[in-house]
Design a protein that fits this description.
The protein has 135 residues and is α+β, with helices and mostly antiparallel strands. It has helices spanning 9-13, 16-21, 29-50, 63-68, 91-101; strands at residues 54-58, 82-87, 107-111, 116-120, 130-134.
């Protein structure tokens, strides 16, 4: 299912860990609404601003999958409100574009060593625009 010009629901639910462990990683209607919100308000505009392809390492995770990959119990991935992103080059470049864009987000965590950017956007409530940089 195509959500925006460059993002699909399948990207958000795909997980090699889920496949290997036989975990059904299908989101419910509230999670699909949150994924749609994340794509429309943050990911697609960010992709347009950066001007190159963004791939999703990890999107939606059902609670069983979240536990299997070592995610924290309060992970926004379980709500469809978060995605881990990669671009060609440095993920730090993506964070820089995000900071300059004025786009809404709740949290951005740059994992320099693993070269990806975690972003989240709450479906409801206040966005705190917290930025964390990890080695």
């Amino acid at each position: 299912m195509k959500i925006t010009e460059n993002f699909t629901l399948e990207e958000f639910t795909h997980s090699e860990t889920a496949i290997a462990k036989g975990i059904n990683n299908e989101p419910g209607s509230r999670e699909i609404l949150a994924i749609t919100n994340l794509c429309a308000k943050l990911l697609q505009p960010l992709r347009d601003a950066v001007g190159k392809s963004i791939s999703i390492n990890s999107g939606y995770r059902c609670p069983e999958l979240n536990a299997a990959v070592g995610g924290v119990p309060t992970s926004q991935h379980q709500k469809g409100e978060a995605a881990d992103l990669r671009i060609e080059g440095k993920a730090g470049d993506l964070l820089e574009v995000l900071e300059d864009s004025g786009l809404p987000f709740d949290q951005a965590i740059l994992y320099r060593h693993k070269n990806f950017l975690h972003v989240s956007l709450k479906l409801e409530g206040e966005q705190r625009k917290q930025i964390i940089i990890k080695k």
